Amino acid sequence: MSKSDIALLGLGVMGKSLALNLLDHGFNVAGFDINSLNRDNAAKKARELSQQSGKGDFYNASNLGELLANLATPRVIALSVPAGSIVDSVIDQLIAAGLEAQDIVIDTGNSLWTDSERRERNYQGKLRFFSTAVSGGEVGARFGPSLMASGDLSAWQVVKPMWQAIAAKVDQHGQPLGQFESGEPCAAYLGPAGAGHYVKMVHNGIEYADMQLICEAYHVMSQLPLSAQQIGATFAKWNQGVLSSYLLEISAEILQTSDPVTHQPFVDIVLDKAGQKGTGLWTAVNALQVGVPAPTIAQAVFARAQSGQKALRVKAADMLSKPSPLAPNDFDALLDDLHDALFSAKVAVYAQGFDLIKTTAHAEQWPLDFIAIAKIWRAGCIIRAQILQDISQAYQDDSQLENLLLAPSFSAQISGKAPGWRRAVAHAALSGVPMPAISSALSYYDGLRSAVLPANLLQAQRDYFGAHSYARVDEPEHRRYHLTWSASDKQQIEL
């Protein structure tokens, strides 16, 4: 048996799927997991693949030393282990087992981007640390994920052929292709360590928001009332146009699925408490830390938190007043408004996400390519959508684009859809249906297009109680002043 091209350390759901994908494309793979059941399951699946021509060989290692001995040099080891301290622990064990300076260790988990930066520093001279954020879940990893790579550039040259082979592919129009079809791979080297996991973090924040936007449209429609089947059919229709996306597609299918136990709509028997693994929270916290407005991503995180307060919500439902149901004058017109609101809010979410990436890239001096980022999200990942083709085009048309909402193609579309967006938000408010994400996206849009905001009063308040100073509209902004508020004869003091 030939030496393995790459090792997968961790053969759980994602590690096994990546290993099988690599085997599918003819690469020899070694695998190891401390759980013997995971090792045996991966080996069984690999044997089934090996019966087909053109597939790679799988080596089932029983320990780390055996794993390293089976690898061609430079040795490439992809870690598929939980994020956090376990990543450092496994790398240290690999070093103890004989890893050398030219060998490459790839973190494919959902690590915090600052951990990736720290690891590159800590392991300098001991190995080539590399990271690749993987999006698309189990199915993506198995048949074509979106891969966001970063770290040692020389390591990318070694890894690139494998990553581009197993990544999802799109055609010249940005439409997803099959696993073995030739097309543009959704895999790219994004920059120094931390860049890939940072972009994946923002991807997940956008994912949180996009899911919440769809749920809010569903909530309003369910109060009209429309059945789950009818809402699903509407979503399926919307998915044929500008809203086409993986998340809307699966939402349509979910809503049209019956529970096999009760035969009621499946969605109606699912408890309304949403879980979260924290990457959306990381995005919201990071936006607050760097001062970039990303209210819709934050509201999506808050919405999940409020869904967890089930007992409190049930109690409050009986105690707090609620408006009378609002019957729309034109049922079809309201659905059109919801469609326009969903599209417009979706664009606003991407604007927030790309603004956050741009700000951090500038601070970290990462040479990020927004065109490449939009392109690798077109297939293989959870937020894959038709709109990403238009986003990549917007950045091709203007590489210095300050905000996605200012792209002529999007500003024109939203100008036409904004009235429906406003009517949909107003209908939800008057009906007592919470719409935190879609309404916050509208406020973001209105804030962006406001040449003057009430922050003048806010800064005056800060100067009043804390002497925080202010700038004047009739003077250069760098000149700062303070007003002597306590004196009867107020005086301005230049600082």
From TrEMBL:
What are its GO biological-process terms? D-gluconate metabolic process; pentose-phosphate shunt
Please give the catalytic activity noted in the UniProt record.
Answer: 6-phospho-D-gluconate + NADP(+) = D-ribulose 5-phosphate + CO2 + NADPH
State its Enzyme Commission number(s).
1.1.1.44
Q: Which InterPro entries match?
A: 6-PGluconate_DH-like_C_sf, 6PGD_dom2, 6PGDH_C, 6PGDH_Gnd/GntZ, 6PGDH_NADP-bd, 6PGdom_BS, NAD(P)-bd_dom_sf, Pgluconate_DH
Look up the domain of life of the source. Bacteria
**Annotated Gene3D superfamilies:** 6-Phosphogluconate Dehydrogenase, domain 3, N-(1-d-carboxylethyl)-l-norvaline Dehydrogenase, domain 2, NAD(P)-binding Rossmann-like Domain
Membrane-spanning parts: none
Which residues does the UniProt record annotate as the domain 6-phosphogluconate dehydrogenase C-terminal? 196-486
Pathway it acts in?
Carbohydrate degradation; pentose phosphate pathway; D-ribulose 5-phosphate from D-glucose 6-phosphate (oxidative stage): step 3/3
Query: Which SUPFAM superfamilies does the entry link to?
Result: 6-phosphogluconate dehydrogenase C-terminal domain-like, NAD(P)-binding Rossmann-fold domains
Q: Which residues form the active site?
A: 200 (proton acceptor), 207 (proton donor)
SMART domains per record: 6PGD
Q: Which UniProt keywords apply?
A: Gluconate utilization, NADP, Oxidoreductase, Pentose shunt
Annotated binding of substrate, by residue: 110, 135-137, 203-204, 208, 277, 304, 462, 468
Check the record and name the PROSITE patterns matching this protein. 6PGD
Question: Does the keyword NADP feature in the UniProt annotation?
Answer: yes
Q: Name one GO molecular function term.
A: NADP binding
PANTHER family associated with the record: 6-PHOSPHOGLUCONATE DEHYDROGENASE
- Complex and partners: Homodimer.
User: What task does this protein carry out?
Assistant: Catalyzes the oxidative decarboxylation of 6-phosphogluconate to ribulose 5-phosphate and CO(2), with concomitant reduction of NADP to NADPH.
The entry assigns this protein to a family as follows: Belongs to the 6-phosphogluconate dehydrogenase family.
Protein name per the record? 6-phosphogluconate dehydrogenase, decarboxylating
